[in-house]
Amino acid sequence: MLVLPLLVVVLFSFGERGAAGGYVPAFTLDNYANLAARWTAFQNTILLAPLGTVLCLLIAYPLAYYLAIKADPRWRTILLILVIVPFWTSILIRSYAWIQILGGNGLPRLIAEFGFGRPRLINTPFAVMVGIVYGYLPLMVFPIYVALEKIDRRLLEASADLGSPPWRTFVQITLPLSLAGVATGSMLVFILLMGEFLIPQILGGGKVFFVGNALVDLFLQSRNWPFGAAVAATLVMVMLVIVTLYLRAMKRLSGGRDDVAMM
Amino acid sequence: MRLYVIAVYLFLYIPIGIIALFSFNAGRHAAQFAGFSTQWYGKALDNPFVIDALKTSFTVAMTSALLATVCGTLAAVALQGIRGRLRMVYDALIYMAVMVPGIVIGIATLITLVTVFDTLNPLLATLFGGKAPPQLGLGKGSLIAAHGLFTMALVIVIVRARLQGMDRTLLEAAADLGAPPMRSFVQITLPQIAPAVLAGFLLAFTFSFDDFIVAFFVAGSETTLPIYVFSSIRRGVTPEINAIGAMVMAASLVLLITAQMILRPRKR
Asked: At B95, phi and psi to the nearest 5?
């Protein structure tokens, strides 16, 4: 039930386009040869999805660290729930909020009133980035928090007792032990970002488009399904390759331990 | 450190606050706050397109969540009896369904459904004949199928977590006392997993109700609330969208918090 649809996508990608859109069975690689026509979308995705993942990670890690190690245990649960709650509500409406903030009458006007000119924010890669970090931050915080929380506190105390400064404890103990969470979080965010459609559509205004936007265009507007299927299949393939490489690299980094796996 | 954390929380909640704040804007421009008013809520609820979309969304979410809950719970119970390699394959498949980007699910479901319809429709035409043979097409049915399928994975994950925490000796005791499997399922398993089943239902409902991307692909000519909001956003920013957004957010928050409360106290 779950795998069949993916197989159908691959099958479609070898087909030809019917006269009125749709699909005519065939075996051709033309659709794959044609991929270059959507190169910009692939380029944007391959550049911006990893960048968004890294930004999420940089912002999420200190927050997860605070929640897991520094925060008062009485407040911990409620603080954690507060991070997750936005993630479960409609991403569509949350992105819409950023149109109001970054649009001409939001932040840019505020900046103009302070006399710094009136920068254009909406429909730029910057706006898409803000939307991405906003949308996916909770997904990154959670796995890192779980990994940090599992760390045996006695290790940290022992390190302090032996006279190592806090930064050294962090680099030598906390960070390596939390890598599993970092790997899981980055993977989750990265996979979902590769297929993102809404955020670039709403905050990029059709100027900053991802593969997801190309897919919607091919399937719903220009109705070139076989080509769309080829784009989708390529996307999944690229995703799988990057995920495999990343997991392998993380495994090496953490000294070949097995717990650096997804989920 | 503390300042940083506060800043992140502000970053997370200011946009939500802005949606809510401007939904009470008396002026018609979304950018300037011109006094308090609830007129936009009234306008939104008077708009027949909004009401239609809301009805569609509700029907789809309710039906698909019910389907997903029943099938998902049964699947979770059945999976409990499977061990070893086969179990690992099933687990991997379920996690995949939770993790694959919505757009891929949307496309895959669209293509599959259309292929199935294209094979079935001529068959229906020859079976029924006449001028207007029944036709299968995209619409509420395909929405329910697609949502039911991908929220089912969610229900399975939640119910299974609860099943794994269950005391197995109770089931053995029931079997020893001669209860048939069906009876011990109804009298022992079901009451114990009931909170997880209910929470799974609420989450599945919220997922379906909030989903845009899958619906966008398989809705055909139907309009769900997120699809309506999306096409309104393209036409511009208005306080009416804020009002709809605020209501949808409030509704999903209530459902989510209820689901959390049902799951939490018994977990410990």
From this structure: -65, -35
DSSP helix/strand/coil, A40: helix
pTM for this model (two decimals):
0.83
Answer yes or no: do B248 and A90 touch at CB < 8 A.
yes
* Residue showing tokens 């032996």: A162
Query: Closest residue of B to A98, CA-based?
Result: B15
Q: How far apart are CA A171 and CA B248, in angstroms?
A: 44
CATH number at residue A129: 1.10.3720.10
pLDDT per residue rounded down to tens, chain A (263 residues): 556 667 778 888 887 776 555 666 667 777 787 787 788 888 888 889 999 999 999 999 999 999 998 888 888 888 988 898 888 888 899 999 998 888 877 788 778 778 777 778 888 889 999 999 999 999 899 999 999 988 888 888 899 899 889 899 888 889 888 888 898 899 889 988 988 999 999 898 878 888 888 888 888 888 888 888 888 888 888 887 887 888 788 777 765 554 444 33
Number of domains in chain A: 1
As a whole number of angstroms, the distance between CA B39 and CA B128 comes to 52
- 224-263 of B, contacting A, C-beta below 8 A: 226, 229-230, 233, 237, 241, 245, 248-249, 252-253, 256, 260
Contacts of A104 in chain B (CB under 8 A): 31
Interchain contact B136–A (C-beta under 8 A): no
Q: How far is CA B51 from CA A65, B132, B143, in A?
A: 45, 31, 18
Residues 6 or more apart from B55 whose CB is under 8 A from it? none
Asked if residues A60 and A135 have their Cβ atoms less than 8 Å apart, the reply is: no
Residue with tokens 């989920």: A263
- Nearest-CA distance A134 → chain B (Å): 7
Query: What is the C-alpha to C-alpha distance for residues A61 and A69, in angstroms, rounded to an integer?
Result: 12
| Locus of tokens 């997801």 | A212
> Which residues form the domain of A236?
4-253
Rounded CA-CA distance B144/B155 in Å is: 15
The string of DSSP letters for chain B reads: -HHHHHHHHHHHHHHHHHHHHHHTBSSSSSSS---B--HHHHHHHH-HHHHHHHHHHHHHHHHHHHHHHHHHHHHHHHHHT--HHHHHHHHHHHHHHHHS-HHHHHHHHHHHHHHHHHHHHHHHHHHH-SSS-----SSHHHHHHHHHHHHHHHHHHHHHHHHHTS-HHHHHHHHHTT--HHHHIIIIIHHHHHHHHHHHHHHHHHHHHH--HHHHHH-TT---HHHHHHHHHHH---HHHHHHHHHHHHHHHHHHHHHHHHHHHHH-
Using a CB-CB distance cutoff of 8 angstroms, which residues of chain A are in contact with residue B200?
none
Looking at CATH, the fold of the domain delimited by B2-27+34-267 is given as: MetI-like fold (1.10.3720)
Query: Would residue A98 count as lying in a domain?
Result: yes
The domains of chain B are located at 2-27+34-267
